[in-house]
Design a protein that fits this description.
Elements (H helix, E strand, L loop, with lengths): L4 H13 L27 H8 L8 E2 L5 H10 L3 E4 L7 H15 L6 H6 L4 E4 L9 E9 L2 E10 L2 H9 L4 E6 L2 E6 L1
Antiparallel strand pairs: 1-2, 2-4, 3-7, 4-5, 6-7
Helix pairs in contact: 1-2
Length: 186
């Protein structure tokens, strides 16, 4: 995430301006004192500049700083900044459980799957643990002029490897469930 010094000051200023109710203080009406006739309220130059820039992009990575193929794709959708959605960090047990729940519900009609499931021959792997497969789901949250306007995602896979596995008689499936990339064989 890119946060410049001006944006950092704006965030700090907003933190100072939060209502006291958020800090757990009792809520009651606030009456501002009347200004002194000769007093002129002043904000420091950094705070004033930061507050004036709050509407500008404060999150994301500039498109130019992304890998060229990602930047080209996101730019074609109209984004000027984006945040890559990371794969969630889950234990191996949780990964296996999530994928197994999904494939049991969805893959029952695939040839040989139910039998392989019954005899324990289904193998679930993280796609990243099979580098020759080259499978990866890429997802971004996109912004234009500082405003969120959507998301984009795509996948990559080494079809030469996948096709060779199929030709060798390996039954297989791959995908992403809850942002977890998986490769299943039986």
């Amino acid at each position: 995430m890119v946060i410049d010094p001006t944006t950092s000051r704006a965030i700090a200023a907003l933190q100072l301006l939060k209502p006291m109710a958020q800090a757990g203080a009792a809520t009651r009406p606030f009456l501002a004192p009347a200004p002194e006739p000769m007093a002129k309220p002043r904000l420091g130059p950094g705070v004033s500049d930061a507050l004036s820039r709050i509407g500008q992009t404060a999150v994301g990575t500039r498109i130019e700083d992304l890998p060229a193929d990602h930047a080209a794709r996101l730019r074609s959708y109209g984004a000027d900044t984006a945040i890559r959605v990371p794969e969630p960090s889950v234990s191996d047990e949780e990964f296996q459980s999530r994928v197994m729940t999904y494939i049991k519900e969805s893959w029952g009609g695939l040839e040989g799957f139910s039998e392989a499931l019954a005899n324990g021959a289904v193998k679930i792997q993280r796609a990243s643990d099979v580098p020759e497969l080259g499978y990866e789901t890429i997802q971004y949250t996109m912004y234009k002029d500082g405003s969120l306007f959507g998301g984009a995602g795509w996948s990559t896979v080494n079809m030469t490897y996948y096709s060779a596995q199929t030709a060798a008689g390996v039954r297989q499936g791959l995908g992403s469930i809850e942002d977890l990339d998986y490769y299943v064989t039986w």
